[in-house]
Design goal:
The protein is mainly alpha-helical. It contains 12 helices and no strands. Helix 3 crosses helix 4. The model has no long low-confidence stretch (mean pLDDT about 90).
Length: about 220
């Protein structure tokens, strides 16, 4: 649930270094895993987060969600104990391609109380719809962990469709909206960040560290 900003950050950093796209996608996946592993020790708890962060990276780059899943799967399958997460993603693809009613499909994917189920339901809902509102409503109307599945679907649809896709009546009462929009704008422009004052030796050392860690940024 916390890793969408990681996908946003590395997508922005990649803007200035498109030749490093593969490396930045891998970094997105790895950092997503690391962020989740702070509180989720089971591999399915943190590998799903890596998948989610990498999907956000791909979607912000204009990749179709189905194609994004295919691109991210190799990152997943190189990790140990990836099987539960892989099966969940494959089940999403199968159900999306079938004639199953959405309610039945979501029941087959689970209730979202465990990470791979929540990811699967959120992805399925984002695949099934054309607009943000319908996808989020589909993702929260089940008996399981609906806040998690709704958030995942909303992140994916937001990355694909942008802020303008969110209904105004949802945005109007939103608490801390200006803060969140400012943070999102900062993440979207992270590729142009410069740290410190070039005349300050300590700041320059920090800048060197940043440049070494994120080449081309």
């Amino acid at each position: 649930m916390r890793v969408a900003p990681i996908g946003m950050l590395f997508h922005a950093l990649n803007a200035g270094s498109p030749s490093l796209r593969s490396e930045n996608l891998q970094r997105t996946f790895d950092l997503g895993c690391d962020a989740a592993a702070l509180t989720h020790g089971h591999p399915s708890g943190f590998l799903t987060a890596g998948v989610m962060a990498a999907l956000i990276f791909e979607l912000l780059d204009g990749t179709d969600l189905s194609a994004a899943i295919d691109r991210v799967m190799p990152l997943l399958t190189h990790k140990e104990r990836h099987e539960e997460t892989l099966v969940a993603l494959q089940q999403v693809q199968t159900l999306h391609a079938s004639n199953a009613a959405p309610d039945d499909a979501i029941r087959q994917l689970g209730q979202g109380w465990i990470a791979e189920e929540a990811l699967a339901i959120g992805i399925y809902c984002a695949l099934q719809v054309r607009d943000f509102e319908s996808g989020v409503i589909m993702a929260v109307n089940h008996d399981g962990d609906s806040d998690s599945t709704g958030l995942i679907a909303g992140h994916l649809l937001g990355a694909m469709q942008g802020r303008s896709a969110i209904p105004d009546r949802w945005l109007a009462p939103l608490e801390l909206r200006e803060v969140m929009e400012e943070m999102a704008d900062d993440l979207a422009t992270a590729g142009s960040w410069r740290l410190g004052d070039w005349g300050d030796p300590e700041a320059c050392a920090e800048e060197d560290y940043y440049a070494e860690r994120y080449p081309g940024a």
